[in-house]
Amino acid sequence: MMLKSTFTPLFSIFPAKPRTPKLFHYRTKSITNTFTPNPPSVRQNASSNTLTVPPPQLPPTSAYIHLPFCRKRCHYCDFPIVALGSSSNQTNDDDPRILNYVQLLCREINATKLECNTNPPLKTVFFGGGTPSLVPPRLVSSVLEVLRLKFGLSSNTEISMEMDPGTFDSKKLKELIGLGVNRVSLGVQAFQQDLLKACGRAHGLEEVYEAIETVGSCGVENWSMDLISSLPNQTPEMWEESLRLTVEAQPTHVSVYDLQVEQGTKFGILYTPGEFPLPSEIQSADFYKMASRMLSDAGYNHYEISSYCKSGFECKHNLIYWKNKPFYGFGLGSASYVGGLRFSRPRKIKEYMGYVQNLENGLVDCRGNDPIDAKDMAMDVVMLSLRTARGLDLKSFREAYGGSLVFSLFKAYKPYVESGHVVCLDEHGTVVSADEINTALLDVDKIRQLAFIRLSDPDGFLLSNELISLAFGVIAP
């Protein structure tokens, strides 16, 4: 596929490590606001193209926990972190910065209002950061205990933890497993010593291999490996080697992120996207295609734009994001999606301390006072769904937002169905041809028979920004 000269890479919105989704628009609310709990709800008026809010969601069953500690800040990182220093060891048992933060985090969880009296237990917990594996297991245990007492944990809760090479050994990992951690996300990023050093990573290649061996020897079956492409001076040969060695390590899940150069980071000062020593947009697309091909050939399902897994090993927590389900977020800079609204905590420790204090004093209502915008919700559903191999569920989308909007989406996507970037499926999962779509556009009833619309892999995913923006123009012209 030839990329357009105006092509905006999909990677411009997807960061170099997992976090809660960054949305295209700005509906994130200040946590100091309040909102009317029961906004009015009416159905879509086809003639006026007025969208209305779907029925309220169930309370969240997932929680993201931000543990911000790192040995040092990587050159590409703009996350809210606390750098402990490169000499920081694997135990950190007596570091008051970690102890004080975890106590503050537990206070926030305890002060959070439940959505209802019959709040369901948590089914997924994700410890992200930062480098959560720098936190002593006894403090991780205290967080899990607070979550258990506040919300409950289901018997088979997926408890994930991001871990970096050089920050854990078999003793620590076994302790974490004993606490219930049953999924590890290993931040390898590259298999070349020079690239790791150029990124400012605190670990080297020797520690990468040690970490992989430790995860295997401790019997962790459900584990993921993170890689970053389009790094400065990274060649196709280097990227191919990293993918090959990843496959040889046999993780059950692989996350592949293209470098996003953020303002305020060291890379943001040194480099301009698309200019040497960073790869061009076409080279970045080639890296993406190589990952899709090699990982698919190795038996990994490309179930989300940046995620691959062996059968049955999708990240259940991240699927909550892509399915646009509600979730709690706790800790510095974390985001929540509750009651149809998204809101974020402060990114600096001092402000976060004040937020927790105000929350305890009843001076903060995390749910805002603005009415829920149905168009924003519809755009979220489209953007998040089209990240996945499953795509947009047209039946549920039609029920929530009306058949005329679905019809308008098909009209907008018609050229991309013909080019193969957009794929339509019937209720049996059979691909519907472009000719059949053209015929269906003459009959609204035939459009109703279509079940899913998704982007092709890899070419459709590579044009996801353009295709999602096109959908936004239909939803909110």
Automatic annotation (TrEMBL):
SUPFAM superfamilies: Radical SAM enzymes. GO terms for cellular component: cytoplasm. Residues 35-49 have a biased composition (Polar residues). Residues 55-298 form the Radical SAM core domain. PROSITE patterns: RADICAL_SAM. It comes from the Eukaryota. InterPro entries: Coproporphyrinogen-III_oxidase, Elp3/MiaA/NifB-like_rSAM, HemW-like, rSAM, rSAM_horseshoe, rSAM_sf. GO terms for molecular function: 4 iron, 4 sulfur cluster binding; coproporphyrinogen oxidase activity. Signal peptide: none annotated. Residues 35-55 are annotated as: Disordered. One of its GO terms (biological process) is porphyrin-containing compound biosynthetic process. Gene3D superfamilies: tm_1862 like domain. May be a heme chaperone, appears to bind heme. Homologous bacterial proteins do not have oxygen-independent coproporphyrinogen-III oxidase activity. Binds 1 [4Fe-4S] cluster. The cluster is coordinated with 3 cysteines and an exchangeable S-adenosyl-L-methionine. Belongs to the anaerobic coproporphyrinogen-III oxidase family. HemW subfamily. NCBIfam families: hemN_rel. This is Radical S-adenosyl methionine domain-containing protein 1, mitochondrial. It comes from Quercus lobata. The lineage of its organism: Eukaryota, Viridiplantae, Streptophyta, Embryophyta, Tracheophyta. The gene is LOC115962601.
